Amino acid sequence: MNRLYLSVVLSLLVFACAEKEHDEAAEAAAGTPDRRASEVSDSGVYSVDDFQALRYLDGDWRGSGYDGGPFFETYRFVNDSTIEMTAWTDSSMTAPRERSQYMLRGGVIRTDKGARLVKLDQDGHRFETASYSWTFRQVSPDRWTARVGPATIYTMDRIARR
């Protein structure tokens, strides 16, 4: 009797979950605003569409807000699930100082340095490691910010590469 009861409960649970996913897919297709971002941040499972929301990073950037003066970075989409970031030593953007990657693998958006995307919503893309966090937020097509920790904000302005 217990096995029959358990089978019925599990079947109903699977049916209910499938029905909810169907309803959510229909809402997304209808263009329900902010539905995807708020639910994705709760589930922690991300799609190629979620990763493509980082497309505004693609380009060459001059950063400000750093005590050492301006800094320069390039973000390039290598494919639909990988972004390569290059930090340059100076404004000539010819000598790389550091390289890293942001990637979507198995429903997880992460970096090659161990950070993971933990929240995606109207405030941006929040990444965390064991010891610090940062949030990328698009301001305009040619500007975005990186908030590192609770109070440090870097502003990134698009530059034309020579």
Give a description of the structure:
The protein is of the alpha+beta class. It folds into 2 domains: 2-32; 48-158, Beta Barrel (Lipocalin), CATH 2.40.128. The chain contains 3 helices and 10 strands. The protein has helices at residues 2-30, 35-43, 48-52; strands spanning 59-64, 71-79, 82-88, 96-105, 108-111, 116-121, 124-128, 133-140, 143-148, 152-158. A 10-stranded antiparallel β-sheet has the order 5-4-3-2-1-10-9-8-7-6. A hairpin with a 3-residue loop joins strand 9 and strand 10 (152-158).
Describe the strand arrangement of the main beta sheet, using strand numbers.
5-4-3-2-1-10-9-8-7-6
- CATH class descriptor of the largest domain: Mainly Beta
The chain-level mean pLDDT equals: 79
Total number of strands: 10
Low-confidence stretches: 1-42
Quickly count the domains. Answer: 2
Overall 3D form: globular
CATH superfamily of the largest domain: Calycin beta-barrel core domain
How far apart the termini lie comes to 75 Å
Helix content: 25-40%
The ordered H/E elements are HHHEEEEEEEEEE
A few lines on this structure:
By secondary structure, this protein is α+β, with helices and mostly antiparallel strands. It has helices spanning 2-30, 35-43, 48-52; strands at residues 59-64, 71-79, 82-88, 96-105, 108-111, 116-121, 124-128, 133-140, 143-148, 152-158. Strands 5-4-3-2-1-10-9-8-7-6 form a ten-stranded antiparallel β-sheet.
